[in-house]
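Severity: low
Component: inverse-folding endpoint
Summary: output formatting inconsistent between runs
Steps to reproduce: submit the following structure tokens with default settings.
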């Protein structure tokens, strides 16, 4: 059966659409009547600009008018051509349909035996394919628009320090591998920003050298010649980023990842790069005066001709780094590693290189070592040092030649500062001496109480060439200057019985060992309330507190005690309280007991406080009336008191001093051997020992007998 193809014919067996009458292809009707339903349909389509949405609406409209997709599009184009005003822009998506429509008659002649419904199906599927291809061709345009929008956001947010829009825009540019040279974002706050998502297709032989095959290569974001002065990008990921010629003066890049980054000619004066990953980074001709590089990893970095006056790079790794003509005048490089590095004609005049490592063929040819401090530095050969300039004027260890002849791990000296002649410090010392060996020597110094005396003792240990110091800081704030001074001298500082917060500990302390002060106080209170339920059933609980709160590190003990008492719901009263920081304060405890005879419990908030509380009760002969609970370290005398039913001491909270001392030595050695460099808090479990648990006390008596 042969017949001309009429797009207006309703297929056999189908009824016209109930909403619209059967549509005849009348061009004049459409030209003269914009109210015609088909004209209204075309107008609805024309206001849609998105390709995928426009196609979906076209298919829907064609279905409503019972037209094939090709016929509807043909009529739509004719309608747009008849309009007086230029037709609205439409995407390239329709062009393929025009080509398709031109060939419809030939296509139908070839398929004249196929029904109209099947033909519409075929054309519809073809249109979807064409739409998909058109979408693929539109991707570059869409990406370019995203890039332009992101760059506009960066311009708009230029003067703002905090901007989520800026961060999102930079991430967009990074994901699209788009550059943004000349970024203006001084003082911007972008902590932890991740800009490492650009991966470009790369087909080469190396792609087949690993499985699975790698055909995409990471490429860093281009932020060359940017202005990020005093911005905060701590912990940011800028791997392989291009920051060439950028102003990074005063920027915070601590713990950031800049591996393989290009910082050639950048201004990093006063920048904070502590703990940053700078492996393979290019700092050629960069200005880095006064920057912080403590604990930074500069392995294989290129620092050629970099200007680095007075930088602080303690514990930094310069392994196999290029330091050609690098100017490190008056730099602090104590404990840094230069294994295999090339310091050809570098300037290290007046720099501090105490305990620096120049092993593995580090090159010192023509290096300026005038007045440098090379105390305890390690060298691989005599001629290595002698090839440097002015090496004779450098400070060296007395036995430096013998050390080269007989290379081995240096003997380490670790000092314990005892701020009181109490059993807790004796326990620390015992643990430290148990951890020592032929390569580790333990020193012990008794320091009078007070921040000034502590600072003086620390300075004495620094001057003696000590490698590490273990101490319980006198004051959380007052002790900081002396501890920072020790750190800058390359001394490993480890605190016991107190932990600084991580931010404060930076550039000062490497580790701390401490029990949970709040829990110690709470456990002490819990046992006290249990004891009173048996021994003071019908008597009031009148407590005298000896808290040692003058020292901030002991205040949490008292807070924990209050929390424990509140949790017990036992009725009690704090009759009076005194401070206890020296042995002479025992007179204040005795005075409190004399003036307040109703006190039947003394609670001690520190080792000293509990000790003098027991002594005061015994001197006043109040053993039967007043009982003592508190924080107190284990010793032979304390263990015997707990085994004596006549003793006023009912319980102690032992702080595991022997265990802490032992572990502190091992932690110091790990840092000194460059096995660990980050600040670590080591929690230690305390032990509650009571008169009612004599078996546990007897079990620990052997350990206590070792503590004199």
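Observed output (run 2 of 3):
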């Amino acid at each position: 059966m042969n017949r001309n193809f009429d797009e207006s014919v309703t297929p056999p067996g189908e009824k016209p659409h109930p909403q619209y009458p059967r549509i005849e292809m009348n061009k004049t009707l459409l030209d003269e009547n914009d109210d015609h339903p088909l004209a209204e349909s075309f107008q609805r389509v024309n206001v849609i600009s998105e390709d995928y949405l426009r196609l979906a609406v076209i298919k829907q409209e064609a279905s409503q008018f019972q037209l094939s997709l090709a016929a509807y599009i043909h009529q739509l184009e004719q309608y747009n051509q008849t309009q007086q005003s230029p037709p609205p822009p439409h995407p390239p998506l329709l062009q393929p349909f025009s080509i398709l429509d031109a060939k419809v008659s030939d296509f139908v002649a070839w398929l004249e035996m196929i029904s109209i419904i099947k033909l519409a199906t075929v054309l519809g599927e073809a249109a979807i394919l064409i739409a998909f291809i058109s979408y693929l061709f539109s991707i570059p345009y869409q990406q370019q628009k995203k890039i332009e929008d992101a760059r506009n956001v960066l311009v708009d947010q230029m003067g703002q320090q905090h901007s989520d829009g800026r961060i999102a825009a930079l991430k967009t540019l990074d994901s699209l591998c788009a550059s943004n040279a000349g970024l203006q974002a001084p003082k911007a706050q972008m902590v932890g920003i991740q800009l490492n998502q650009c991966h470009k297709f790369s087909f080469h032989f190396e792609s087949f050298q690993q499985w699975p095959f790698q055909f995409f290569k990471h490429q860093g974001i281009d932020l060359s010649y940017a202005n990020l002065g005093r911005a905060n990008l701590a912990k940011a990921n800028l791997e392989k980023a291009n920051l060439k010629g950028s102003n990074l003066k005063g920027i915070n890049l601590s713990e950031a990842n800049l591996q393989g980054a290009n910082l050639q000619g950048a201004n990093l004066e006063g920048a904070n790069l502590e703990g940053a990953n700078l492996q393979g980074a290019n700092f050629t001709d960069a200005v880095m005066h006064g920057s912080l590089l403590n604990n930074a990893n500069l392995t294989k970095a290129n620092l050629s001709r970099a200007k680095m006056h007075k930088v602080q790079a303690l514990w930094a790794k310069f392994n196999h780094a290029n330091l050609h003509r690098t100017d490190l005048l008056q730099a602090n490089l104590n404990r840094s590693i230069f294994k295999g590095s090339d310091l050809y004609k570098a300037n290290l005049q007046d720099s501090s290189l105490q305990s620096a490592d120049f092993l593995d063929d580090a090159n010192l040819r023509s290096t300026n070592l005038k007045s440098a401090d090379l105390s305890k530095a390690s060298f691989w050969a005599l001629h290595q040092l002698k090839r440097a300039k002015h090496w004779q004027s450098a400070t060296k260890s007395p036995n430096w030649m013998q050390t080269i002849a007989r290379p081995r791990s240096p003997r380490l000296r670790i000092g314990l500062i005892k701020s009181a002649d109490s059993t807790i410090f004796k326990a620390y010392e015992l643990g430290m001496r148990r951890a020592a060996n032929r390569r580790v020597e333990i020193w012990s110094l008794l320091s009078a109480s007070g921040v000034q005396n502590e600072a003086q003792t620390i300075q004495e240990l620094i001057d003696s060439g000590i490698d590490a110091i273990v101490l319980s800081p006198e004051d959380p704030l007052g002790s900081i200057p002396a501890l920072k001074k020790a750190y800058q001298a390359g001394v490993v500082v480890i605190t016991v019985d107190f932990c600084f917060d991580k931010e404060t500990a930076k550039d000062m302390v490497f580790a701390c060992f401490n029990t949970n002060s709040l829990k110690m106080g709470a456990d002490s209170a819990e046992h006290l309330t249990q004891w009173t339920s048996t021994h003071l059933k019908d008597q009031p609980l009148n407590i005298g507190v000896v808290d040692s709160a003058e020292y901030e590190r002991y205040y949490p003990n008292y807070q924990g005690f209050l929390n424990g008492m509140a949790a017990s719901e036992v009725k009690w009263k704090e009759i009076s309280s005194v401070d206890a920081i020296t042995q002479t304060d025992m007179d204040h405890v005795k005075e409190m007991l004399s003036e307040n005879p109703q006190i039947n419990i003394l609670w001690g908030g520190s080792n000293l406080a509990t000790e003098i509380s027991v002594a005061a009760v015994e001197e006043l002969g109040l053993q039967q009336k007043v009982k003592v609970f508190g924080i107190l370290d284990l010793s032979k005398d304390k263990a015997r008191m707990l085994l004596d039913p006549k003793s006023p001491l009912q319980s102690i909270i032992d702080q595991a001093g022997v265990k802490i001392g032992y572990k502190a030595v091992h932690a110091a050695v790990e840092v000194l051997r460059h096995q660990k460099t980050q600040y670590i808090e080591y929690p230690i479990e305390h032990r509650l020992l009571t008169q009612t648990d004599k078996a546990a006390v007897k079990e620990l008596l052997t350990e206590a007998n070792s503590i004199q």
